[in-house]
Specification:
Length: 311
């Protein structure tokens, strides 16, 4: 059955490699989807606008070509005034970014052909989606939907430094940026409430509000998280020294870190987090994008969003 399709491409994703690969991607797309409109993004947040406009014109399938940040923008375009424009429209993903962690929770194997087969042949899954209400860098209250993981603490700092390096045309992997950030990072005392229950005050390295299982370029931060169970897996990592943290860092990649005594997993639907010291600046990241800081509230919206893939 033919679906009215819009393709949204972030040509700068994967450090500009998507632009170089586009002709190859386009030819492969045409062998699976006969007719589609295509538009390239030229600036941040433009994918939100393109997605929203396409849905208002009756588009049924939006295919994103890029990384997790691009998919986040496209997903946010599905909504207007916090309501879905068309609840039956679906997101398809062609992963082409430095970070493509979300697809792993959808059982989409890497490779262009695999992604296109899922888009053209697989059924759509109805998944939960999160909404973050946070403070931006101009002290304004903002809202952002997220598909995969939001976190506060060192994760936001790492993305911030990666963005700074990118502006200076310096390449930096997530792990390399994590190490360099950790050297000067100070653990943060954070007031946390989960489903109206106060969590005992602690200093934290990171708090991850997980809808999906994986973030940070392959870290299995919430190995048991499910996209359709109506709950976040909230992973809290208490303060560690440099060598203690990196001695155990491999556990995050293998998903065995939950056994560590300084790691807690709490499941919930609504998470509130704010600096214990009110003047402290604690960054957050949302699906790999550094958009603001605490205080913030994260809420789950159960089985709301259609995406191509299986869970």
């Amino acid at each position: 059955m033919f679906l009215k399709t819009q393709v949204i491409v972030n040509p700068e994703s994967n450090q500009g490699r998507t632009k170089k690969r586009w002709n190859h991607i386009k030819l492969a797309l045409k062998s699976f989807i006969k007719e589609f409109k295509c538009e390239f993004t030229e600036r941040p947040f433009q994918a939100i606008e393109i997605s929203r406009a396409a849905l208002k014109e009756g588009t049924e399938l939006i295919v994103g070509v890029g990384g997790d940040g691009t998919m986040n923008e496209i997903a946010n375009g599905f909504f207007e005034n916090e309501k879905l424009i068309n609840p039956s429209s679906v997101l398809g993903i062609i992963p082409s970014g430095t970070g493509c962690d979300f697809i792993r929770s959808l059982n989409i194997r890497s490779g262009l052909k695999n992604a296109l087969e899922v888009i053209s042949n697989a059924s759509s899954s109805l998944i939960d989606i999160g909404i973050a209400r946070y403070t931006n860098h101009s002290s304004q209250k903002k809202e952002r939907f997220f598909l995969n993981v939001s976190d506060f603490g060192i994760g936001g700092e790492v993305i911030y430094h990666m963005n700074q390096n990118r502006m200076k045309r310096k390449g930096s992997s997530y792990l390399k940026s994590l190490i360099s950030t950790f050297i000067t990072y100070k653990n943060k005392a954070i007031d946390i409430k989960i489903d109206d229950n106060d969590i005992p005050l602690q200093e934290y390295i990171v708090g991850a509000i997980s809808n999906g299982r994986i973030f940070g370029k392959g870290m299995k931060i919430a190995p048991h998280a499910k996209l359709d169970d109506g709950m976040f897996d909230v992973v809290l990592v208490r303060g560690m020294k440099f060598f203690e943290f990196f001695k155990n860092a491999w556990r995050i990649y293998s998903g065995t870190h939950l056994f560590h005594p300084k790691v807690s997993l709490i499941r919930g639907k609504k998470i509130e987090a704010s600096p214990h010291n009110k003047d402290e600046y604690i960054l957050i990241e949302i699906d790999g994008e550094q958009l603001g800081r605490l205080p913030a509230t994260f809420e789950i919206i159960p089985k709301t969003f259609l995406v191509k893939g299986t869970i």
